Amino acid sequence: MLGRRQEINLQLTELLDSALLGFCFLFAHFLRSTFAPLIWPGIIEIPPLEQFFWVIAVVVPFMPVVLEYRGFYKNLFHKTPAQSLRQLGESLFIMGTMIGAFVVFMNWNVPSRSVVILAVVCSGIAILLRKAVQKQRIRRRLASGKGRGRVIIAGAAEDVANFVENMPAEHRASLQIAACIDITQLPVSELVKAMHDHSVSRVLFAAQHVHFSKIEEAVHACEMEGVEAWIAADFFQTAIARPTFDILGGRLMLVFHSTPQIFWSLCFKNVLDRVVALLLLILSLPFWLVAMIEIKMSSKGSIFFRQERSGLYGKPFMMWKFRSMLIDAESQRAALELQNEMDGPVFKITRDPRILGFGRWLRRMSIDEVPQLLNVLLEEMSLVGPRPLPVYEIQKNEKHAQRRRLSVKPGLTCLWQITGRNGIRNFDEWVALDLKYIDTWFLWLDAKILVLTLPVVLRGIGAS
Prior knowledge:
By secondary structure, the protein is of the alpha/beta class. Helix content is 53%, strand content 12%. The chain contains 17 helices and 10 strands. A 4-stranded parallel sheet has the order 2-1-3-4. Strands 5-6 form a two-stranded antiparallel ribbon. The radius of gyration is 29 Å and the shape is flat. It starts with a helix and ends in a 5-residue tail after the last helix. 23% of the residues are buried. The mean pLDDT is 83.
């Protein structure tokens, strides 16, 4: 099948890149240990290759995985050289970070940085050359027409034309389109006749505007002929959701995802959340002590403020904060509604009279949010994600799109926190930032937000 063939081709390409990476490390060590002393006799001698094996063992198998994650192997013909260079550079940076982590946390030694730098340069050149050769090979294959499977594309005329027009060149290189059949105008017998005339191996159905009963009849005809039937799963046009397939009770299900579905990245995010939250919890213990003493000295009542917030998919959970307001702050809210500065269900006042004197400092430095690290450890929150709102505020949401921000775990910080915070008065703008985070999520976006949050917190930007 074409999909399996493409998967095998990708795996072979990754194996080839692994081999190139291994060769480049050997070549770099040869240049530095044997060739360089011939030119510069006084150059410092470097250790034997064996001491570099751990670096090779990390880079060779994992670099192709990182390249695939960054999309380096996708859209071969619909990508500019600058995009390829950027993806390659990002992948090399990720690998460099991994090696740095081993050096720092495992005390593994890199015997010669010059060998690693030479290997990186050689590997980058080798992979780009391999990609250029691969593109040229596919172009020749397209021009010659050799080794391509003969297919028929069937469906409504408009859908068929759109299907052919949007087919990537690297996929078209594996196919020879023998005929295009409009099954909305012609009987299925014409499709069968075309299968006989052209000896095709499969029929591709572009069935967006074709009645299901017609598709069922055509697929049954393919089944009787022993010809594979492939149906394009784009019956429904979605603006955000991405279609995938899954199995439920033995039935093939077409699933539309509108949230991140990168399994290993999400697993890593969950593990990282808890590890970093535990470390931050330990490091922040002095702030806990200061906050607890000051709250007790400045006000009677509980040290902590607990409130029911909306979590993943709206599931309520109890969020923890250091109390920065009067004990009866919630009961006073109704009297302050007219002073609300937010446009939407959220309630915010710049100079809220309910805030304690010491509470303003807690809020300005975001120390009042520190107990939410407990929520992260309990897997109710994440380090990065849309800020959780009280349940009663979520219930006021008038727009269904605003609830989509609940499709991921709420977080300690988010895009709103680093770009506008309390400077944003329109709830729709806040939601737009959260949806942008959901639709463009990747691990490095989380890392970027965490890094940019630190100066915002230290300077107290937008806090009130």
